[in-house]
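Hypothesis: this fold can be encoded by more than one sequence.
Test: take the structure tokens below, design a sequence, compare later.
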């Protein structure tokens, strides 16, 4: 029925390990024969063998301890992006493709994309590389069928030829013309102390820093416009992490992400104060990007558990500053679990200003791995409140203008008339950006006056206050009954429903005006448009704007009993929306039928 092999070097001495072995048949390499679950324990034959095992190939006691717990040498992070021009296998001319990855004895299978020859998977997973195993990554693209899956193509990637600690964008052509597969691949998390990412063996050379600064100097502003800058991150250690294991410890490792580039440290086992001492470099393609630093706990079967996160905009990095950063939760709204969890980092970013400006005016780099936002009541209510705040701000501006038109304050209205008339008479297009510059100037002055309060200590205090507020909100949320929650959702949903209905009604009224749903109003609109065209042809828009403004301001004085209105909205309010327009047509047909019947029955 099948066979499986077990590499004894993957077992730990004296520790029972639960393993899952995939059954294989050399004559049927593509057929899935099932799996077998076993519990294996490796014991030494004698004490001498035990000592020899632990002392073999170990240069330091620290490395010995690491090898007892972790035998993989690197982590291969793969982001499967998409396939292109795959072979059609179904009668409809499509396929149901999925991808199998194999690195040594470790395998991964992607999800199935149905009825597609150009699938997009956007899946991320980690495979582990061992020194004593093959470094050939095998990719097999299969077509999902009810009976037996069909082979669409395969290819291999030699990992030994790829640079470590760098994210590579790879596009591989499948054998036999089966299309192409695009993916991101990073080899990181190296455990050897002699690697270039280890701070204990790293030495900075002034020549290297000078070369980087020359590469991004202003004299080379138009060379390689996509290469905006160079980021160096030193990850020293962390403290106060939460205990994720039953023994009160964790197995933490740190992941650094800059858009689609992803690097990580080695795993430090059985500790809440890990010391990584790693240095990483990133090519900066957009200076407006954000560096995400996330700490995870490694569990069995290479699963992970979240311990803390940090988001650092590149523009806010202070070069050469060695600083403790507080770890936050997944939403970056409060502290992470643990005893005041922190991480010690040092960053340095060198970038070219001209390239950064040019890159800012171009589309952002799309991040492939983005979680889909599912519907959540709290997020829905929060977004509605954000929109409501903007609408309320606009409404307040409208009330202020209405007070000016109604002469609630004579001085305010008089000043408004004078300013409006002067602006309309002397207005030129170049004044629009100048007005926006004045808004920027106001914001700069306010920020300068308040800059003394925006210190790191204040930020920490704000975080603490946010945490307390968030805890209070959680307590209040828990105290709410189900009826109150449903009522809150109903109120917000009703607000959104009415707002969407008003916007849809306005759009349908405009549409029905042009398709003669109400002929009288359509003919009236035609006459008004002809008169407005003639008026705009002979009279300048500047004088028309002045006349309109003076009419609005003086209405309260000349015609104090008239109701303020908007003639365009008044016209559209007479036009029925889609439902009522259909009802009008039905009523019109019924009336015609009644008249026709009366004529027929008449003697």
């Amino acid at each position: 029925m099948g066979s499986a092999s077990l590499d004894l070097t993957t077992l730990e001495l004296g520790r029972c390990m639960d393993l899952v072995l995939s059954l294989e048949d050399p004559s049927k390499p593509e057929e899935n024969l099932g799996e077998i679950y076993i519990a294996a324990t490796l014991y030494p034959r004698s004490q001498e063998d035990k000592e020899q095992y632990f002392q073999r190939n170990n240069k330091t006691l620290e490395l010995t301890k690491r090898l007892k717990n972790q035998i993989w040498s690197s982590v291969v992070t793969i982001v499967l992006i998409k396939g292109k021009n795959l072979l059609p296998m179904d009668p409809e001319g499509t396929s149901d493709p999925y991808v199998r990855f194999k690195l040594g004895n470790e395998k991964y299978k992607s999800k199935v994309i149905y009825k597609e020859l150009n699938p997009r998977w956007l899946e991320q997973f980690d495979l582990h590389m061992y020194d004593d195993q093959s470094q050939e990554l095998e990719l097999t693209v299969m077509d999902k069928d009810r009976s037996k899956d069909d082979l669409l193509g395969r290819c291999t990637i030699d990992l030994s030829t790829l640079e470590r600690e760098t994210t590579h964008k790879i596009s591989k052509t499948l054998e036999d013309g089966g299309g192409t597969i695009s993916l991101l691949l990073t080899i990181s998390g190296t455990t050897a102390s002699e690697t270039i990412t280890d701070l204990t063996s790293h030495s900075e050379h002034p020549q290297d820093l000078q070369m980087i600064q020359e590469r991004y100097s202003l004299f080379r502003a138009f060379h390689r416009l996509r290469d905006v800058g160079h980021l160096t991150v030193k990850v020293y250690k962390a403290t106060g992490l939460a205990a994720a294991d039953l023994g009160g410890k964790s197995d933490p490792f740190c992941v650094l992400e800059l858009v689609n580039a992803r690097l990580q440290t080695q795993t430090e086992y059985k500790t809440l104060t890990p010391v990584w001492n790693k240095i990483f470099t990133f090519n900066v393609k957009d200076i407006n990007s954000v560096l995400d630093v996330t700490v995870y706990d490694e569990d069995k079967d290479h699963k992970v558990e979240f311990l803390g996160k940090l988001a650092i905009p590149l523009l806010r990095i202070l070069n050469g500053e060695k600083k403790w950063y507080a770890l936050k939760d997944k939403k970056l709204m409060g502290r992470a679990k643990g005893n005041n969890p922190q991480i010690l980092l040092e960053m340095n970013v060198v970038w070219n200003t001209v390239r950064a400006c040019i890159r800012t005016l171009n589309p952002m780099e799309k991040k492939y791995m983005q979680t889909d936002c599912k519907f959540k009541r709290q997020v829905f209510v929060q977004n509605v409140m954000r929109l409501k705040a903007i609408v309320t701000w606009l409404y307040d501006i409208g009330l202020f203008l209405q007070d000016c038109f109604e002469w609630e304050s004579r001085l305010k209205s008089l000043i408004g008339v004078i300013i409006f008339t002067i602006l309309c008479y002397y207005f030129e297009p170049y004044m629009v950006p100048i007005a926006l510059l004045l808004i920027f100037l106001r914001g700069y002055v306010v920020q300068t006056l308040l800059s003394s309060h925006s210190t790191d200590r204040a930020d920490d205090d704000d975080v603490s206050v946010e945490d307390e507020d968030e805890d209070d909100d959680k307590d209040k949320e828990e105290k709410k009954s189900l009826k109150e929650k449903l009522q809150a959702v109903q109120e917000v949903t009703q607000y959104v429903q009415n707002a969407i209905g008003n916007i849809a009604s306005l759009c349908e009224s405009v549409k029905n005006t042009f398709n003669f749903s109400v002929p009288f109003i359509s003919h009236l609109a035609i006459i008004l448009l002809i008169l407005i065209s003639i008026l705009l042809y002979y009279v300048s828009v500047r004088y028309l704007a002045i006349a309109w403004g003076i009419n609005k301001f003086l209405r309260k004085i000349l015609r104090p009993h008239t109701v303020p209105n908007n003639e365009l909205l008044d016209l559209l309010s007479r036009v029925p929306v889609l439902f009522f327009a259909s009802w009008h047509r039905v009523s019109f047909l019924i009336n015609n039928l009644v008249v026709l019947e009366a004529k027929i029955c008449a003697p």
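The CA atoms of residues 516 and 522 lie 6 Å apart. The first strand starts at residue 17 and ends at 22.
Hypothesis status: open.
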